[in-house]
Amino acid sequence: MTIIFLLIPLGLVLVGAALWAFFWAVGDGQFDDLESPGWSVVADDTPALETPIDGEQTG
Amino acid sequence: MTGTGRCFHCDEAIAGRVAFAAEVTGTVHAVCCLGCKAAAELISDAGLADFYRFRTAAAPRPKEAAADIWATYDRTEVCEPLLGTEGLLAVVNLLIEDTRCSACSWLISERLRRLPGVSQASMNPATGRAQVAFDRSRVGLGAVLRAIAALGYRPHVLGAADTLAITTRERRVALKRLVVAGFGMMQVMMIAVGLYIGASQGMDPTIREYLRITCLIVTGPVLVYAGRPFFAGALASWRSRQLGMDVPVVIGLSLAFIASSWNTLLHRGEVYFDSVTMFIFLLLLGRYVEMSARHRAGSTADALLRLVPATALRIRDGVRERVPVIALMAGDRIIVPVGECFPADGRVTSGSTDVDESLLTGESLPIPKAPGSLTVAGSLNTGAPVEIALSAVGQSTVLAGIVRLLERAQSERPRIARLADRAASGFVACVLLGALLVALLWLWVDPSRAFEATLSVLVVTCPCALSLATPTVVTAATAALARQGLLVTRADALEALARADHVVFDKTGTLTLGQPQIEKAVPYVGTVDEALNIGRALEQGSEHPLALAFAGFTTATATAVAVHPGAGVEGIIGTERLRIGHTSFVEAIAGPRPKDLPTASIDLGGEHGWRATFQIGDSLRPEAARVVRQLEALGLTPHIASGDHPLAVTTVAARLGIKDWHARLTPSAKLALLQRLIVRGHQVLVVGDGINDAPILGAAAVSVALGSGSALAQSSADLIALRGELATLPLAIATARRASRVIRQNLIWASAYNLIALPIAALGWVPPWLAAVGMSTSSLLVVLNALRLTRREPSSAPTPALPVACPA
Fold first, then answer.
1. What is the percentage of chain A residues whose pLDDT exceeds 90?
2. Coil, helix or strand at residue A54
3. Tell me, what's the ipTM?
4. pLDDT above 70: residue B355
5. Considering only residues 93 to 122 of chain B, which have any Cβ-Cβ distance to chain A shorter than 8 Å?
6. In 10 A of CB B57, how many CB atoms?
7. Best interface-test mutation with A: which of B27, B167, B172 has the largest number of A CBs within 10 A?
8. Which residue of A has its CA nearest to B167?
9. Of B258, B337, B422, B627, whose CB has the highest number of CB atoms within 10 Å?
10. How far apart are CA B574 and CA B571, in angstroms?
């Protein structure tokens, strides 16, 4: 059972790291708006009209 | 693309054939009006046509603005107080009305980002707030607002010092605390399981001490960081010499923690670290949900800002100039153009117009104003430009008075809360005295067992279950109501909702849709459709609120359209000059009104004689009658309190079968009516949506605002019906009653447990570990009981989906 003398501190370090990451994310504003960022994935980065393909225009 | 029959942009029905064609990414779509055509092509040309793919609701119908009201925002003295700075950039917070889904906010922020000079634009669809950072040397505030308005949305400038920043910070801190408590709880629980198993099966003392010290190390920071709000609350109530609910929480937490740490360091006794962390986490969870609901309700200041414009057109020495509203003084003369709100109270000096005061008085039809008439700040000029001499500005306006009424009503509320606090503090005082008594008795009888017995008493009676009894139920019920589209903004709203026995409805916008509609069209010559066709063509150019009733597709085109304020609209269709409006106005060209034509609100006639008459009215919400009957079945007595005409109110009351109605009420008269009911000992539920309802919404035992109503009314309401429907009301009351039943069960269970456990613990028969198990079990039972509320119980709630036979 002596392994827990290593494992538990290790676990606590991981928890600390997770908390640090979470604090950073909250401070970065990632939890302020949980809805609209989902849309940014499906939206095109560049407008379709600005990248026309010559000679292959579809109606 | 003609077959759909609906406008591609705003989804309004297009009768018959295509009125206008808009080209979006190379495809021609049918749209209903020029405004929609402009908006659709603007969106397409900006490369934002994806909006139409991702939106989940139709876009708002843009208004063809009469004048560019945004240009004034470019002037330095106007925009200076509204802007904040971030480095070299100017930052402005906006509240954008009419956004309907996430795609709308995507569209707005994309459009703004493409404006030259705008470096950052973000919008939160949940709150309707946007923040824009821009370079003032390259783009003005006016251009930013104009870009949003061109898409069909209505921007309002909130100013630099926005409450948004405060609420964001509050939410971030609360979220951090919650997660710290949650992580801490998981760790401590995990180790506690090891300790419990070790206690029953035997464990190496070194490992046991090691596990306990680990628990101590984890619990310490959780208590200090995540538990801080409780300590702050207890400190505040200590300073005000009142034993609030935070006090027993803090005493319970501190004693459990100190005793556990003490035992850990002395290698003896029991530890309760798991209880400490679990307690903190559960309490924070309840508070977090409560806070999110509160934040969504918005703030009073924002709503006021929507009503009073930022600038006004002042006349001084014959010169007209745009000045900020703050610079206006009583005695100044200003011109209020059509479509703008009155910035201050005053008296009309020249010109005549119609004014929409519906937000302030509830009067659904516009009120004619002639020289000498009083106008109030916040009402909308809908007829013609008028010149007014100001009598009151800023804080002395009627609008400001209403807001003060509202604030007073809100400040009167906490009495109930204080009462509850006093009851709680009585309980706390009893527990503390009891513990002290037990400690003294045991010190006298057997000092060696005094600490353990006292601790057992404190742990057993730790108001865990008692203090969890209400918040968990409130949280569960809040979540259940949110699923039904009702947002609870105050925790005590549920209890009051469950007890409500009288319900007071506002009329305009609450029982009715709040928009004028053609109830009846009687043609004198030709058909109904022809009459409507002509009427719509004529009214298209009018900003008059009644013209809204005529919104829709028309095949006729009116030329030489002239709006006659306070009378009607004139125009030429084909070769005939036609007039729509007041009887006398139409009679002037069409001859005397035919006797066999029924009297109605709006007449239509031309040089060739009379055409038709239209009855305009504010039609009832389709669900209103059913909801009123369901509420009566639940034992509530309905009332109507309206600022509108007695005639309009009786019609509605008769159709809904409501016996008690009051018309032409000012906000203070509404408040008096409400207070009469309260004095008689009734629990009154108020349902409303307008600014004029705000004071009574605040003063009522419990209030519901319809989500389509003004923000001010919503901010003072306890519940907000997000979908703007009445149908959720009976459901909400049923849920609230179930919730209060569960709260009662929980309180009875928790007090019974405490009453039984206390004497046993005081006698020293309960070791602290058993006390902790008992406390955890009772808390768990309370939480599980509360969770039953989140389950749907179709049998006990009167679901509107039931096929109830009801006449339309």
1. 37
2. coil
3. 0.77
4. yes
5. 102-103, 105-106, 109-110, 122
6. 12
7. B172
8. A32
9. B627
10. 10
Task: Please check whether residue B364 is in contact with residue B689, taking contact to mean a CB–CB distance below 8 angstroms.
Answer: no
For chain B, the domains span 1-64, 71-161, 166-295, 313-404, 421-483+739-808, 513-620
CATH 3.90.1200.10 given to domain B513-620: no
Whole-angstrom distance, CA of residue B637 vs CA of residue B503: 6
Q: What pLDDT score was predicted for residue B803?
A: 33
Burial B782-802 (b: 16+ CB within 10 A, else e): bbebbeebeeeeeeebeebee
Asked if the model's pLDDT at residue B801 lies above 60, the reply is no
Residue with tokens 């809204």: B548
Mean pLDDT across A19-31: 90
**Strands, E assignment, B621-710:** 637-641, 660-662, 684-688, 702-706
Contacts of B225 (CB under 8 A, 6+ apart): B177, B180
CA B287 to chain centre: 19
Q: Name the 3-class secondary structure at B397.
A: coil
Please give the CATH number for the structural domain made up of B313-404: 2.70.150.10
Residue B94: C-alpha distances to residues A40, B82, B83, B102, B109 (Å): 21, 10, 11, 16, 12
Structure tokens at B170: 């509050």
Structure-token pair, residue B592: 């005397």
Vertex B288 angle, CA B282 and B289, to 5°: 95
Q: What is the predicted pLDDT for the residue at B179?
A: 95
Using a pLDDT cut of 90, give the percent of chain B over it: 5
Buried b (16+ CB within 10 A) or exposed e, B349-367: eebbbbbbbbbbbbbbbbb
Decide if A1 contacts B198 (C-beta within 8 A): no
Of B391 and B517, the one with more pLDDT: B391
Q: Which of B506, B603, B618, B689 is catalytic?
A: B506
Q: Which of B638, B706, B699, B695 is nearest to B665 (CA)?
A: B695
| Residue of B50, B122, B214 with shortest CB distance to A8 | B214
pLDDT of residue B798: 39
| Model confidence pLDDT, tens digit, residues B560-578 | 778 777 678 888 888 888 8
B49 interaction partners in chain A (CB closer than 8 Å)? 48
**pLDDT value at A53 more than 50:** no
Q: Give B721's strand partners.
A: B486, B706
